[in-house]
Amino acid sequence: MDAGDNARNRRAFNGSLLILVLPLALLMLSGCNSSQHQTFIPSSSQVPTNFNQYQGTLAPFATSVADHKASVTAAPTVDPYLSLGDLRSGTYVATISDERGLALWSLDGHQIGVLAPIDDPTAALSPDASTIAYWAFNAGGLLLYDLDTHLVSHVAFKFDGADPTWSPDGDMLAFVTLPDGQGEDEDWAALNVADLQANTSREIISWWTEELAPDWSPDGRLIAFVSNYRRDCVMCGRELFLLDTACLASILNCEEFVDLRLANAMPDWAESPAWSPDGSMLAYICISKENGQRDICIIKLDSLEITRVTTTSVAEAMPDWSPDGEWIAFSRYFEDQRKKGVFIIRPDGSDEQLIASGESFVFWYEKP
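The chain above was modelled as a monomer; its predicted structure follows.
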């Protein structure tokens, strides 16, 4: 199971429960006029007060969609959640389970506590470690969760999406919006960028593809993403592309700024790219064209040299570098798909360690 599987499973799940959220959808869309593939940031006057800024905190993580929907406006419940100010200095791994929400673990495999009532496996921590961006179907869009106040605010209204990624300065978010799973455009995905300072949002790429999984480079100049769409390769699997963010300053279509050199150099399909802290390499899931085996690979951007980090018979997913570049964390799914765990490994493939059994990896957190 990978990020694309998570998104597709979430679409199917969401569609089956459409009747539960239709009233909520009507409430959010009243007074707003948007095209099917357009995401925007409404002004405060366009958004009902209970969706612009929740006055209070989310209730503890709920196990059902109905309960989680009701929890959005529940009374404040802060006690179950960690205070990052009380943590010791060190490096931690954030994971998601089916029971607790977003939890924090030490590298020696001890759970520290629960960070937030978030169940999005593509959630992303801001560069200053103050805010989590995540998708919440029950609340109808991309949200920001303040780890200090436990307040939640909207970034964009769209029922389905995935993979928010922060610009290095924390001023912008790139994210993927997905269709509702009905009609001819079921596999159409759009890459968007929201400017949190200017309160604007823009769709920059809209391709027929199952996944985009963007990741912003440490210097802010590039966004790595994957897609199974190429004009000259209709039957291609997912390949790795680079987008020059210079297009964000122009009105030009950003498709003209997509670099194909990684896609052309790679022998396998690719998923879930993640930049190294120095921006010289990308870790990603490499998928064999011969047998579909999923491992972790690293590609150097200067030489295009590829190194295979794992060589297991099970499936790896969602690799990400530690802040110091010494580790790569990832999720591993075993044959029956019900057993999973979060592991860390050195970039050279040595010293693999289990951090959390039954969890899925989300992001790293470093406390100064």
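The mean pLDDT is 76.
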